[in-house]
Amino acid sequence: MAGIVLKSLVKSYGKGKPVLKGIDLEIGDREFMVLVGPSGCGKSTVLRVISGLEEVDSGEISIGGRRVNGVPPRERDVAMVFQNYALYPHMTAYDNIAFGLRVRGLPKKEIDGLVREAAGILNIEPLLEKLPKHLSGGERQRVALGRAIVRKPKAFLFDEPLSNLDAKLRVQMRAEISALHRRLRITTVYVTHDQVEAMTMGERITVIRAGEIQQIAEPLGLYQRPANRFVAEFIGSPPMNTFPARWEADGFLIAGIPIDWWQGAVPLPEGLRGKDLLLGIRPEHIEVGKEGKGLPAGIDLVEPMGGESNIYLTVEGKRAVARAGPDAPFRAGDRVVIRFPIDRAHFFDGETERRIEGA
Ligand SMILES: Nc1ncnc2c1ncn2[C@@H]1O[C@H](COP(=O)(O)OP(=O)(O)OP(=O)(O)O)[C@@H](O)[C@H]1O
Ligand SMILES: [Mg+2]
Q: How far is ligand 1, taken at its centre, from the CA of residue 34, in Å?
């Protein structure tokens, strides 16, 4: 059992303000947990306090049921993998993978068995005698993974491990790390900036903003039911659109414009009439039309992506983006209308920006 439990973690560097402001997170045994959030929100710091590279100011960290505050990194039995691989340049791939085991004083034969087993899993047997400088980025990252695997750690901590790789290799390594997790089932905490990595690799995703957890959920749950405006706008690319909205006694307004094209009842509790709201709608749920009912909009830019196009618009002075097919007959400068079904809309409190559940 090697679940990781973080309780009320507070951490500051030096005399500065806390960069972790009370992190509560339970990562299940064998789980693949992804951490996402803007640059500087504290993702790497969470990994560093789990690994023991940094100590917390207060709060409790346990790994596999054991409290590890104050326990030195090597006794915590977790393996970190970084984006820059951190391989020793003068050692072969084999020696890089074996290094930690030698330091621990394992017998040569046992080390050899572990290195060859890891190399087999990662498909790098032919590379073992090469120096890092003679390896490609993806091969180096595999060696770095090998070094983590041979330790048979209680948990893997990944800090943006693929961000130095080109797009194609990233897709390949993404699949390999997922496969590795399915095979070894070692508890994993994986930090990334990449939306697609987060959505495809994570069994659950934790969204962090400025040292505070915003939401913990399965990928689709996060996408379909974001807990607040921040998560709504952070998850998804292009992001969810949000408009100021009000539900008056005599109808619903979006950005001040009365809506007369919705079918069905507004899915909100009556008590919200007259309150400031935010309406969220994902780009793929917006329909752009040349005429008919809808919010009047101007097209700023059409971005063809091959299989589909992103259409950037301005609605009542507010920017928005819609997604359309590859042959959408629109051009920058066109005046259009946009509309969407009411049951695709997300609603947030105008003040707290928290999600409002339907009536
Ligand atoms: N050693 C340090 N000394 C002082 N401040 C630090 C130190 N390391 C990180 N910080 C600060 O702590 C905050 C959180 O940093 P952290 O590296 O955890 O962010 P991050 O979410 O990993 O960001 P990124 O996505 O850019 O890697 C930042 O404001 C950063 O400037
Ligand atoms: Mg970081």
A: 18
Domain 238-349 in this protein, CATH class: mainly beta
4-230 has which fold? Rossmann fold (3.40.50)
Identity of the residue numbered 209: R
* Residues 45-63 pLDDT 10s: 999 999 999 999 999 999 9
Determine the residue of 11, 36, 45 to mutate for testing ligand 1's pocket, defined as the one with the most ligand atoms within 8 A of the Cβ atom: 45
Edge-to-edge strands, sheet with 32-36: 78-82, 155-159, 187-191, 32-36, 204-209, 212-217
Ranges for all domains in the chain classified under CATH 2.40.50.140: 238-349
1 falls in which pLDDT band (50, 70, 90)? low
Which tens digit of pLDDT belongs to each residue from 103-115?
A: 989 999 999 999 9
The Cα-based distances of 244 to 30, 241, 328, 336, 354 in angstroms read 42, 10, 27, 20, 14
The b/e string for 331-352 (b: 16+ C-beta within 10 A; e otherwise) is: eeebebbbbbeeeebbbbbbee
pLDDT digits (tens, 9 = 90+) for 267-321: 999 999 999 999 999 999 999 999 999 999 999 999 998 899 999 999 999 999 9
Mutate to test the pocket of ligand 1, among 34, 36, 41 (most ligand atoms within 8 A of CB): 41
In the chain, residues under CATH classification 3.40.50.300 are 4-230
**Ligand 1 pocket list (CB less than 6 A):** 13, 19, 37, 39-45
Quote the CA–CA distance of 61 and 69 in Å, as a whole number: 6
Burial of 49 (0-12, 13-18, 19+ CB in 10 A): buried
Q: What is the pLDDT of residues 272-283, one digit of tens each?
A: 999 999 999 999
Residue 330 and residue 350: Cα distance in Å, rounded? 33
